[in-house]
Amino acid sequence: MKNSIGTSVILTLAGESHGEAIVAVLDGIAPGIPVNEAFIAEQLAKRRPQGPTDTARREPDDYRIVSGVFNGCTTGAPLTIVIPNVNVRSADYEATHTLARPSHADYTAHVKYGGFEDWRGGGHFSGRITAGIVAAGAIAIDALSRKGIKIGTHILECAGVADAPFEAANPEALGAQLDSIAKLDFPVLSEVREAMEARILEAKADGDSVGGIIQTAVCGLPAGVGEPWFSSIEGELANAIFSIGGIKGVEFGSGFALAGMKGSEANDSFCIEGGEVRTRSNHNGGVNGGISNGMPLIFNAAVKPTPSIAKSQDTIDMDGCNEAVLELKGRHDPAIIRRICIVVSSLTAIVLCDQLALRYGTDWLR
Amino acid sequence: MKNSIGTSVILTLAGESHGEAIVAVLDGIAPGIPVNEAFIAEQLAKRRPQGPTDTARREPDDYRIVSGVFNGCTTGAPLTIVIPNVNVRSADYEATHTLARPSHADYTAHVKYGGFEDWRGGGHFSGRITAGIVAAGAIAIDALSRKGIKIGTHILECAGVADAPFEAANPEALGAQLDSIAKLDFPVLSEVREAMEARILEAKADGDSVGGIIQTAVCGLPAGVGEPWFSSIEGELANAIFSIGGIKGVEFGSGFALAGMKGSEANDSFCIEGGEVRTRSNHNGGVNGGISNGMPLIFNAAVKPTPSIAKSQDTIDMDGCNEAVLELKGRHDPAIIRRICIVVSSLTAIVLCDQLALRYGTDWLR
Amino acid sequence: MKNSIGTSVILTLAGESHGEAIVAVLDGIAPGIPVNEAFIAEQLAKRRPQGPTDTARREPDDYRIVSGVFNGCTTGAPLTIVIPNVNVRSADYEATHTLARPSHADYTAHVKYGGFEDWRGGGHFSGRITAGIVAAGAIAIDALSRKGIKIGTHILECAGVADAPFEAANPEALGAQLDSIAKLDFPVLSEVREAMEARILEAKADGDSVGGIIQTAVCGLPAGVGEPWFSSIEGELANAIFSIGGIKGVEFGSGFALAGMKGSEANDSFCIEGGEVRTRSNHNGGVNGGISNGMPLIFNAAVKPTPSIAKSQDTIDMDGCNEAVLELKGRHDPAIIRRICIVVSSLTAIVLCDQLALRYGTDWLR
Amino acid sequence: MKNSIGTSVILTLAGESHGEAIVAVLDGIAPGIPVNEAFIAEQLAKRRPQGPTDTARREPDDYRIVSGVFNGCTTGAPLTIVIPNVNVRSADYEATHTLARPSHADYTAHVKYGGFEDWRGGGHFSGRITAGIVAAGAIAIDALSRKGIKIGTHILECAGVADAPFEAANPEALGAQLDSIAKLDFPVLSEVREAMEARILEAKADGDSVGGIIQTAVCGLPAGVGEPWFSSIEGELANAIFSIGGIKGVEFGSGFALAGMKGSEANDSFCIEGGEVRTRSNHNGGVNGGISNGMPLIFNAAVKPTPSIAKSQDTIDMDGCNEAVLELKGRHDPAIIRRICIVVSSLTAIVLCDQLALRYGTDWLR
Q1: What is the pLDDT of residues D71-84, one digit of tens each?
Q2: Cα–Cα dist A54/D102, whole Å
Q3: Are A258 and B304 in contact (CB under 8 A)?
């Protein structure tokens, strides 16, 4: 499979930034799940550019569900979401499209697709495609929440400003944190929004961009989900998350920090709390041997600074294969980290729906 | 798929630590590839425990290829490698097997497999299974090298001691580095072996263990390999690498360090060098938009400290679901980072063989 | 995967008979393939109901390609075709939708989807979905024809009237046959159209329906495509073809007739003709050991009589689980065999594009 | 996937006719299933050549389970079965191996694998590989029988001699038929063994071979299993069955005979019997719209006459690409139809285990 992910619950993505529409097909989702259109709209709004820290391209995201829903519920047949593109300005790309934007997919797409790729606005590589993930993910997030599974992502660090981390070893406290960020369009746990936004605007003023780290948590995932080799919870999620443009690292639990610990510090002791098996710490992010252990699933992802910057850059002209200088036009995000949070939560929800359906059957989610 | 990875070139792993044998089936590898048995043995030797920094379990790894090779070459039919287990001491596990070893897969396996799992020596979750990866990977590494593709992994950091990094933006210098570590059984680029081993032995003496970071590089991979969504080079490799016990983080290029950079620092400018498209820096680790760009592929993986430690630990008894104290017996590695290097290189080679076969056809590798 | 087929070239189908639209996503098709919109329209016309032998539902099939095509060529990114439904009359189904139509999917859908299925016009099980196959298949058929591969299907038998068979062992004569039926909307090789139509109308007048056998041929497929076990050319095609409603049998070459032959009659002797390896007969339908042998690929499929008939039928009411009598309304085909021919050719083309891409790489088809 | 089948329960086959061993890996089978070694041996005996109607090659099939079983039960980890080859006589093939045996896979293997294929005894294409299917299938058949699902295959027709058919529309009578053939090594429902054997021996005496039709039935399969498009019960089974060498046709229920029926004859009316939904006839073989309807699953497969015959045949020499005459040596079956019955039942069981695990979860089978 190429632009599809999943085994029992499968998401397929199609569409280009400046094409007619973004298309997401969510197949295998259990029948009988109420489709909450208001919630989908709300989730799409979180991804949508909104203020001066985001791109000036404003899309209404007037999605339509064209299959798979009947009488307000999923039918079990593939559910197709179409999100038309309306606010496109391809002229921005006309002049420079043979110049490979550094750290973008222009050059690799050119090699892979032999020059036939749709280069307008990044084409099929554009972050715009993630609108399809968010719309499909809204249905998954909503369905999981009815089964007691909560998912959320916040900005752990942006442009050097750090947020408080999730309470990884305390499911109750974490649950409250997830509730608190669920409604935020700038998802942070502590009072860091202003500082982060200031740094983003600073970079923007400078014709530059910034990155950061996001942190995702899942509460309520049963123990015993995942496979030992090649379909580990970590591997399945990492595969999904690395598809999102700009993600260059994924770590579970304490991740790279574990490299500097001793085993006696890093090991998560088991204990019994309220009749439940728990671990006292959660350095493993809720996963042992590729399988969920019932503690919160926790992972971080590194978001590189947006590669589209106003500063002039050295590059090549892909046609003549000459060196060239790029002065970028178009409407770009000085930081995509805020918008990427909901994308990662959405994709996480879809991957977990798949894993749960494989484990417990196709109707479990209903 | 569960214990299998790949689409056109597929690796399937079976076997348990104390079972009869480890089995690896490598399917879809091009016909006509010479099978270099001496090289396979050499690669297995790199994974094998050897000195006081490794476990005392010593396996001869007298593997047998029981299918898929004829007259010294691959036939194109599935190639099966069987590696018998001979040096097993299950008695070490008898007494304590109902006590979940913290940060191991005992508890998650118990929940997933309902108590039917083979708990001897970690069963199917054991690092012993990686012998199958190394044997199959040796064939892949050897075949790729004939196509000009080199792969290697070194210990970038262990127990606080740092090695020099790969020359990520300089393919020629990197090629020399890869050659230099190819024969090493303790793969480091600078004079850090003694310091690292000292720290490992210190931890061992203390009944403890250490972790670290490994760095993998691939030279000679053509541009244009990988898919934009859900089969990105990064996602496919991460999925594979996260299956290896003890890996808790994967980052490409500058990875998490990108989170603190500006776009103008992080972007890799394109240039023409010797008629070839290159980038001046390589913060993206050779991948843009999920697709290889022709520069060296670079990634790091975080290795947590081995969870098997001699110190006593709090845990639970899975039978009665009571709290308990674990005093671990058995033969364990105070650090697995040295041995994991060859496993990661091997798995990387198999994933790339798959991607290359998908891109260029099943016979490309011949 | 569920409503998707293929490994390197993948078709995903979504939509319901009376929903907003039929959606087909064709992923992995090589970039740079000219998209011939007139040919797509022409192929859709062959599937479209047209005279008194077909259903009275008339859909314009005003499809739109909403992704994956740029400047008239495929881009290599997923190609999405949306075909709106306009001529729906769901009221026909309102009254009787709890009565399971015999030999339809109503009851099995009800059990599988728990009553949440879209029952209007057969929902996702409707033959209407095959419009997506034909539109996507037109691109595949057109691309294959540029590589010298021709595909066609004719009605071998309908309601007891037999057509002449394909010249299975004579590639040149077969090529001419394929050319001759390529433009026909009632694809037969001999003068049997009138007789077949007369029998269909007879059945219709009787409130009944008829079935038949269709025969598909592929000329120009290279030898060496397919896999020995579980991805044989026969298995891959059969899996695809059995998805089409009404197909209850698939046989390759002489198929079931081989059961009554001796080995000496059934074996296809090899010979050299014009420097090419051929077989003197073609009882194996161009496939040996699951792999194409370079001779024409030939297979037949049994089409059952359309289950929607006007005659009253015994059945059950799925709500109360009572026995009931069904008097069917709605607009139905007394025979779907004519319309199914183009569907089978289209699906065959997509399966072969996938097999060829796996064998020779993603760009081979360009 | 290539030599693997399944999504949640996956069978992988490796090995060659004259290689060291046949290997079958059965992954994803539920943990806790008792492994009945006597039953496995019994099933293997049914596939084994035995009298003058079979090949003279006699293999003891002393299989070993080298992973995935612990304390007599499946563990949930991949279960590996190794069946050594002992009675090989490769010399029979030395002299003629560049002559393509007509209707065998020699030529297609040669093209596909470029001359690197193991040609001894048909290599990976040999019917010998099916020993792995039967051993793995024995575990699946045994597990399904504990869930009330019975599977069996008989010879419906051989060399012109017809057996009585299964009672497709009468689950109780069918159950008794399945019980009656379960122990037979020559599985027929009526007194036709002698007549069939006589015809087989006649053909053998003549240096020739015969084929036939086999019929498979499954009792007790729940309604609602399968998918509408591309994972229909029919398609999944056909894909599996067509992998078996010699199968050239698969039909469900009345199959090709439906082509000559009217809708009013072919439709299976629903009724309520003993509180259960049933159909009065079973022309659809228990499948509507690709999904099981709760009635017996019934399908036939056409077995071509064994291509290895003693009569001299025209063919080509693959080395020089010259025409040649083949005088075949070696030990061959004048008919494989008896031996193929258990193979088809075994593969059916594995496919159904997969479908049931997908539908109801990985533990359903326990």
Answers
A1: 999 999 999 999 99
A2: 68
A3: yes
B35 and D CB contact within 8 Å: no
Enumerate the domain spans of chain A: 4-360
Interface test with D, best of B22, B113, B117, B128 (most D CBs within 10 A): B113
For C2, C9, C187, D85, D267, the CA distances from C143, given in Å and listed in that order, are 26, 13, 21, 46, 39
Which of A25, A108, A214, A225 to substitute to test the interface with B, most B CBs within 10 Å?
Answer: A108
d(CA A67, nearest CA chain B) in Å: 22
Q: Grade residue B95 by pLDDT with cuts at 50, 70 and 90.
A: confident
CB of C201 within 8 Å of any CB in chain D? no
Interchain CB distance below 8 Å, B364 and C359: no
Q: What pLDDT score was predicted for residue A125? A: 96
- With 80 as the cut, is the pLDDT of residue A348 above it? yes
The span from the CA of C353 to the CA of C28, in Å, is 9
Mean pLDDT for all residues in chain B = 96
Distances (CA, A) of A2 to A13, A123, B227, C27, D326: 9, 16, 6, 7, 46
Please indicate if any CB of chain C lies within 8 Å of the CB of B231.
no
- With contact defined as 3+ CB pairs under 8 Å, the chains touching A are B, C, D
Rounded CA-CA distance C254/C300 in Å is 9
Q: Is A39 on the interface with B (CB under 8 A)?
A: no
Q: Which two tokens stand for residue D341?
A: 């019955």
Whether residue A281 lies within 8 A of chain D, CB to CB, comes out as: no
Burial A229-262 (b: 16+ CB within 10 A, else e): bbbbbbbbbbbbbbbbbbbbbbbbbbbbbbbbbb
The answer, yes or no, to whether residue A140 has pLDDT greater than 90, is yes
What percentage of residues in chain D have a pLDDT greater than 70? 100
CATH 3.30.450.40 fits B4-360, yes or no: no
Closest-CA distance, C258 to chain A, in angstroms, reads 37
Q: Tell whether A311 lies on the interface with B, counting CB pairs under 8 A.
A: yes
Per-residue DSSP letter, A143: H
Give chain C's length. 366
Question: In a 10 Å sphere around its CB, with 0-12 CB exposed, 13-18 middle and 19+ buried, how is residue C145 labelled?
Answer: middle
Compute the mean pLDDT over every residue in chain C, rounded to the nearest whole number: 96
DSSP B222: P
- Are the beta carbons of C216 and C299 closer than 8 angstroms? yes
CA D231 – CA D9 distance, rounded (Å): 14
How far is the C-alpha of C230 from the C-alpha of C223, rounded, in Å? 18
CB distance from C207 to chain B under 8 Å? Answer: no
- Run of H or E residues at D358: helix D337-360
- Distance in angstroms (rounded) separating the CA atoms of residues B191 and D12: 46
Which chain C residues are closer than 8 Å to D224 by Cβ? 108, 111-112
